[in-house]
Amino acid sequence: MVFSGLQDSPFFLQTIHKITIITIIIIIMMIIICIVIVNNIKGFRNYAAGRCEFNSTDPSDIQYIFASVYNKLELYRFDSKVGKFVGYTEYGVKAAEHLNNNTAWLERFRHLKYTSCVPNINVYYKDILSKSVEPYAMMHTTSSSGSERVLVCSVYGFYPKDITVTWINNHQQITTGVINTEPTADRDWTFQLHSHLEYSPRSGDQISCVVEHISLKEPMVCWTILLYKTSPGQSGLMVSEHEQLYITSQMFNNLQVWD
C-alpha cells in the first residue's frame, strides 16, 4: 500500500520523468557516436596485400605484386617483374631500401611467384578459367520512328564474358545504327547481351545476327532476316511467324525474298 501511494506521488512521477529524459538523451548520444564512427570508417588504415596477375599458366606471363598501404596511400611494393622493392613516399623509399638490403627477405619475395601464384593459377585455369558455356539467342523486331525498324538480337547463357555480336547484310558487315549493351551477369554466373540495329527495310536484303564466342567452334548465325515485297514499291520485314524465335547454334534458317 505504501509503495502504491508512492507511485502516485508527484515526487515519484517527477523522478521517473527525469530518468526517462536522461535515458533518451543517452540513447541519442550513443546513436550520434555510432554514426560518426561508421562514417569515419573507410577501410583499414594500414594493410599489406599480395596478388597474382596473369594472362596464362606460363610463368613468364605471371606477375606477383606485394604492396604496403597506409591511409589509402601506397608506401612501397614488390613487383616480380622488377625483382625488388620500390618506394613511393619518403618513408616508402627508406623501407624499400632496407628490404632490398636484406638478401634473405628479398629472395623470399622473389620465390613467392612460384610458390603462391603458379600452383594456384594452374588450378584456376583447370577448374574455372578453361570452362565455357555455349550461348543461345532470341531475335525480335520493334517499331521505330517513321519507316525504320529496330532489330534486337538477345544472346543469353554464355561464359566467359567476352563475346562478339555483329550484324551482316548480304555478306557485308553493318557498322551504322548498331548499339550493343555491355554483357551483364546472371545468377548462374553466365552472361547476357543485347544488340540493337536500327534499319530501314529494303527489298532483297538479308540481315543476320552473328555471334562469336570461345565456346563455339564456328560463328553462330542466329537468324537470317529476309525482306519481302508487300506491294509494288513497298517492302515488309519478316523475322518469324510470331516475330520471335528461340535459336541455338545448331539452327540456321534460309528463306527467300519473293514478289
From TrEMBL:
Keyword Cell wall biogenesis/degradation part of the UniProt annotation: no
Domain (Ig-like): residue spans on this chain: 135-213
GO biological process, one term: antigen processing and presentation
Any GO CC annotation of this UniProt entry: MHC class II protein complex
Annotated TM spans: 20-41
Keywords for this protein: Disulfide bond, Glycoprotein, Membrane, Transmembrane, Transmembrane helix
Membrane topology: Single-pass type I membrane protein
Pfam families reported for this sequence: C1-set (PF07654), MHC_II_beta (PF00969)
Subcellular location: Membrane
Keyword Disulfide bond: yes
Protein name per the record: Ig-like domain-containing protein
Gene source species: Neogobius melanostomus (round goby)
